Protein 1
Amino acid sequence: MTTKAEVKDFYTSQPIAVVGVSRDSKKFGNTAYKELRAKGYKLYPVNPNTDTIEGDKCYPNLEALPEPVGGVLIILPPRKTEEVVKEANEAGIKRVWMQQGAESQAAIRYCEEHGMSAIHNECIMMYSHDAAFYHRAHKFVWGLLGKAPK
């Protein structure tokens, strides 16, 4: 289970690469990128299919980033997540957040076997500073159900 310390460590490990950020403004990858950027987080969008996201330079992969990042947020189908955690490890990135629905047991196991902090089954938006009401409500409900990090 994810701990509060892991969540705090991830958020303070900026810059953060966002892999799977979408060109489609209605998809979660784009929404998360915009909201986190608006909150002041330093982010690098990663999507091999475009040169820009929301007016920011976009990178085709983690290796192409202009500087080392402290963490990677993955918003992809589980099979692709497995590839990205390997790429992150090769790039020396030891903090991974697999957005809900992006995780797979193979990706989680890979992170554990390679000494990487892997947050999964958590929504990145619930824990950002100044989270919107509906994200705070989601976090509250998870706390009631015993699913929130301790």
Protein 2
Amino acid sequence: MEMEILMKNMREAISNVMETMFFRLVQVPDANGTLQEWFARDRNLLGATLTFNGHSAGSIYLLMPAEMADEMTCDFLGLEIDKVSEEQRKDIVKEALNMIGGHTLSISDGTGAYQIGIPALLDESGLTHDKLGDLEGESIFIETENNHLAVGIIFEQIESDPGEEI
């Protein structure tokens, strides 16, 4: 049950963060499949991961095409596309994940039992199309007007009381 609740809350958090902070309308299609099927082979991807612990422990990840990160950086910082630096683009990927992960966990448990780490970039060499299959966990596939993103969660352990719901 915990996974179902977290995934529902993550869908809500994705919509809230993407629409409010990055001015992106998103849809979460009923897509099952793999990250390799979701992202085109020729896309240069950026990604970040965020660890958490509390009722359960694990990590949340965000993957997106590099051009989507550029667009989000422009929208968030109010910059023209030619003014976006590589560092700003990477920071926005981490910040978007921080907001999505923090919002997901806060609506999953309003008592503050979850602690989150500092977002870190995923090694770009691990984000090639052939290596996307190495990312485990449950993924939520997201569509914007012209891009695909994915947010996922990987549990390391679950330590809930049998009668306790998040």
